Give the backbone structure.
Amino acid sequence: MAIPGYRTGLSGLAVGSSLLLAATLAGPAAAATTTPASFPHYNHARHSDQIWGGYADTGGTFTSISGAWTVPSLDCSATPNSSVSPWIGIDGWSSDTVEQIGFDQDCENGVAGYYPWVEMYPADSIYFTETIKAGDHVTASVSVSGTSFTLVEKDTTQGWSKTYHKTGSDELSSAEAIVEDLGDGIQPVADFGSITFTNLTVNGSSFASAGTPNSTDIERGSTLLTKNSSVSGSTFKLSWLHA
């Protein structure tokens, strides 16, 4: 499993020659840029059994996953400095790479912020400046053909889309829809209420039938911080329990 550390800064797109900005479809901000360094930037790879909530399909070779969710509203009142990150991805469950796309949801001094990113761990995340707000409808997908990866994130409410390409050779041993405890599992998990992943399709089939769905909950010690519903076809709900 990947074992990332903290990341204190980014250098725009200069995170590796294998990652290229391919296209921006509709909407503002045609180029991918980093957001201001006023909030933490994180690696988004699994380094323990307790920082991922959600499901991972295993038991095959996984070449595509897509899904959608509505951005939840953060309640920062009890946890003014906290984070959580929903994303869609391939690999990372039992491998040392992760190809993933999503966004961070941070409470910074009691103020909620939403920061979209793409990451091909062990390369750093690329953060970009498009706006995401609570209540927006978001879709995301990761796919691979041969050695060419395509990662797409769209906010259909705000009207923007990002598409990225990467070339590489990875295990393709899992496909995930995850809500992640950021900050190496140290700071509190932001109160996101619940997130329902919908339209989850893996290798052209529903998430439930494409492989073996493995449930994982965010935990700290013996305290359960999130809880999954069962997977129903292409849908499941993940609920916040505790910071």
Remarks:
- The radius of gyration is 16 Å.
- The longest helix spans residues 207-210.
- The chain has one domain: 19-240.
- Residues 19-240 form a domain with the Jelly Rolls fold (CATH 2.60.120.700).
